[in-house]
Amino acid sequence: MISMGSIIMTSIRHKAIILFIFILICNSGIVYSEESGVTNKSQKVYFTLEQAVSLALQANRSILASGYDVLNQGLSLESVNSIFDLKIIPGARAGMSGGVTAEKEVGFGMSFEKRFTSGTKVSVRPDISRTEDTAGIYNTESALSLEQPLLKGLGKEINLDRVKSAEFSIRLAKRSNYQTRVNTVLETVFTVYEIVRQRELVRLNELLAGQMLGHAETAKAKERVGLSTPIDVYRAEINLKDVEDNLTAARKAYQDTKDRLKTILSLPLQTDIEISAPLTYAPVNLDSNGAIDIALKNRIEMEQLEDELKESERKADIAKHNVLPELNLVFDYSRFSSSGDFNRSFGLEQNKWGIMLVSRTDFYRTSERAAYGQSLNNIQSLRLKYDGKRDEITKDVRNHLTTLKKLAETIKIRTEQINQAEGKLSLAKIKFNYGLANNFDVIEAENELQRSRVNLLSANIDYIVGTYNIRAVLGTLIERKE
Fold it and tell me: Which architecture does CATH list for 57-80+161-313+374-474?
């Protein structure tokens, strides 16, 4: 049920988001303009990885949308529960009829109705009216009615079916919201580290571009004095253009990735952001069987399928109950009176009562029997789906652990490659400086060192992101909030 407290908490959350962004902006850099002599706040906002994740969990549009879905399901439950509330229903009528006798009637009444979870329905109805044919007559009545199902519709479980379904929908919406939060955290982490990767690629390409420019200038100078050939100049200039092209692509990818993060954080695209994230990590050492047990215990998908299976079994019981024929006990009692005098009409001197059994049921009940059969088939289907999901999670855990193990081995290999590339570059420079080789060996060694550094950076980042992925696979990435 949605309370005023829930609405207030939602409003507080939105205000907290605004305050969070305001604090970040206040912590941004200050730029001093000598021309104007005034200080102006820059548009750059600095984020750590933790701050980016925190803001994403508060401001991401997908999370907020799924949160509203939870609120809507809560309102649906409130609506369904109102079936068992006391209903006060006023009614009025005015009209005329003609034929053998002409008559006009004006009336007013009030109905008090209450439905119970057992299926019992009780109503009390006071009513007063005035009819006019040859003379005006006042009619008053106070009636009590009770209806009790004896077969179909009898019992707490059948009458709370819609309530139970609404509660299941709330649980489903909450799990969906949680999964959205998990996916958003993973997307935020991946995007933050992609920004770090692209920023480092820009830096490395700028460094390499400076080196290639130096080679081109050196080759041209040596060519003028006959110490190098035109092919050395062409080689350096071609490599310089390749590096400049890579630098342009890296800068564009860097900006595009920052824009993607702004979208995740629901920040204006014109905001300039700067991200910092640690490149150190703790190695993951998990036993495969133990990790699988943790995942099967914590994964939201397993909890959801277990809940769906219980709900399906409950629905099957409801469908079986609906095959029963309809048979209701109806009891009516009323006191009434009629008089041309308004005050005397309230005497309620006469009474009447009635008790009857009422039944109206399709003899074959084909649709009800088919619905029951479908509910049984749905149970079997969900059991197969449950077993399949267990296997899928088991495979997922093993694959992620294997990937992390391979990445750890790759990091060791890339580190060794950098050492080898640095040694090769040092040797090539010595030979080049003493005129024992042209610039081909130096340029090749610098390109190889660049590739090794990029490969090591990518392996490190992939491992760090992989640690977040394995936590998501185990169902322990973020805390559940009921």
Answer: Up-down Bundle (1.20)
Element (H, E) at 41: strand 38-41
Interior CA angle at 91 toward 88 and 96, to 5°?
A: 170
Coil/strand/helix, residue 10: helix
> Domain residues of the chain, as ranges?
57-80+161-313+374-474, 86-151+327-362
pLDDT along the chain (482 residues), means of 10: 42 46 44 33 80 95 95 95 94 82 85 94 93 79 94 93 96 96 97 94 87 78 73 80 89 95 94 92 91 95 96 96 94 89 80 92 90 95 96 96 95 91 84 72 83 91 96 93 68
Cβ partners under 8 Å of residue 286, min gap 6: 401, 470
CA distances to 155, 230, 236, 477 from 171, in Å: 24, 73, 64, 20
